[in-house]
Amino acid sequence: MRYALIKFRVYLLGEQTFAVYTDHASLRTAMKSPHLSQRMARRLSFFAEYNFVVHYKPGKNNILADALSRRPDYDPRTVLVRQLIDDEDEDDDHCAVCIASGINLTNVSPEMDLRDEIVAAYADDAVYAGIVAYLRAPSDETLGALSRNTRNQIDRYHLDGDLLCYNIDKFDAPRVVVPNDDDLRARIIHEFHDSPMDTHLGRKKTFAAVSRDFFWPHMYKWVRKWVRTCETCQRVKPSKSSQAPLRPLPIATEAWRSVSMDFIFGLLPDAEG
């Protein structure tokens, strides 16, 4: 919005009233808010030069403006299309946790035994088993066995040999679909996060690495919980939270008002045990 006002400044200054359509709903009330940050105050000072009215238009209806605002050099084939996952959703109890072990794996690819395990696990996943059955033998019967949501997204799936692959559109790089198998998903995250080559990356970088080659629903929540419960990350990485400073206890006003205890461990036993 600010860029457009600067770009067309010579045409808009002095106009009686013009309308601005935006999908930024909070702009309607931002100009009337009594609590402003310094940055917002500077922006409002700039907006005050123009006489306009803000109209809210939902993003799904603001198609023309979205098309005009896209970068001209944007190539979706070079951009990772990430899953739309709510980062604030804390319901990740069903996700695997990171457990320290003696496994030392340095490379991962959908080949050899991992590939065979993924293919074999499709049969135990009702959703992906139905998708594989339809892609191998498309018919009204196999299509009807799928849920409505799956039917709406069936064009995003294809078979690469025996592997089921998923991609948003033709420009998106295909990713191997991992069925609903906790051991398989935990193994893949372990190899990307815990291997010496990846040096225990954070949740965003680990998710970016895993999602380049693999796909399953709620992958981000899996990665987030794995990183949170990684013992090495908890020991090595510094905590961002500030600790309260040390301060003396208040002076007690009477006996037994304050009681303190010291715990000492590791002392050698005396003669009495």
Automatic annotation (TrEMBL):
<keyword id="KW-0255">Endonuclease</keyword>
<feature type="domain" description="Reverse transcriptase RNase H-like">
    <location>
        <begin position="3"/>
        <end position="50"/>
    </location>
</feature>
<dbReference type="InterPro" id="IPR041588">
    <property type="entry name" value="Integrase_H2C2"/>
</dbReference>
<dbReference type="InterPro" id="IPR041373">
    <property type="entry name" value="RT_RNaseH"/>
</dbReference>
<dbReference type="GO" id="GO:0004519">
    <property type="term" value="F:endonuclease activity"/>
</dbReference>
<dbReference type="InterPro" id="IPR043502">
    <property type="entry name" value="DNA/RNA_pol_sf"/>
</dbReference>
<dbReference type="Pfam" id="PF17921">
    <property type="entry name" value="Integrase_H2C2"/>
</dbReference>
<dbReference type="GO" id="GO:0003964">
    <property type="term" value="F:RNA-directed DNA polymerase activity"/>
</dbReference>
<keyword id="KW-0540">Nuclease</keyword>
<keyword id="KW-0548">Nucleotidyltransferase</keyword>
<dbReference type="GO" id="GO:0016787">
    <property type="term" value="F:hydrolase activity"/>
</dbReference>
<feature type="domain" description="Integrase zinc-binding">
    <location>
        <begin position="181"/>
        <end position="239"/>
    </location>
</feature>
<keyword id="KW-0808">Transferase</keyword>
<keyword id="KW-0695">RNA-directed DNA polymerase</keyword>
<dbReference type="Pfam" id="PF17917">
    <property type="entry name" value="RT_RNaseH"/>
</dbReference>
<protein>
    <recommendedName>
        <fullName>Integrase zinc-binding domain-containing protein</fullName>
    </recommendedName>
</protein>
<dbReference type="InterPro" id="IPR050951">
    <property type="entry name" value="Retrovirus_Pol_polyprotein"/>
</dbReference>
<keyword id="KW-0378">Hydrolase</keyword>
